[in-house]
Design brief:
The protein has 2 helices and 2 strands, in the order H-E-E-H. By secondary structure, the protein is mainly alpha-helical. It has a domain of about 45 residues.
Length: about 70
């Protein structure tokens, strides 16, 4: 819902990325933005999270900014 709001703002005003539009090839729209855009953001966000977890390692609770594992007590 939030992504659709900002996408509609972008298509309607050109802010912040300049003027752009979506064609009808992506299916039905909610105002100016195709409905598939929201789930696409979720998919890209999930893939980014998985990739970050692989690159950084599993982050543990209580870990500080320099380590991915909690300090030994």
């Amino acid at each position: 819902m939030v992504s659709n709001l900002f996408e509609n703002l972008g298509v309607a005003t050109g802010f912040p990325f300049g003027p752009y539009f979506y064609t009808d090839a992506l299916g039905p729209k909610l105002f100016y933005v195709p409905l598939v855009i929201g789930p696409a953001y979720l998919g890209v966000g999930y893939l980014a999270w998985v990739l970050a977890t692989i690159l950084v390692g599993d982050v543990k609770r209580g870990a500080d900014a320099l380590f991915t594992t909690a300090p030994a007590h």
